[in-house]
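User: Could you check the structure of this?
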Amino acid sequence: LISMGGQTALNCGVTLYNNGILDKYGVKVMGTSVETVIATEDRKIFNEKLCEIGEKIAQSATAETIEQAKVVANEIGYPVMIRAAYALGGLGSGICNTE
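Assistant: Sure, the predicted structure tokens are below.
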């Protein structure tokens, strides 16, 4: 159950999966699959999966600097949700109402 234990458990499970350790030792992950965790932690893959099933998604973009974030926020329109990094198991988001 890699979905129990926050971001640390998710990171460990994905690393073990990517390095073939789970297969090597015949470890079966119960609950949320590693593939699903990977898909939901990657914003681009997650958005693509939602589009595949016809779900509406909020406009989003990636910014690596504060200046890029301001440009994106002005394009999208305020308020915007800010995340330092997309992470299922942790905090790190906030709402920004103005520049």
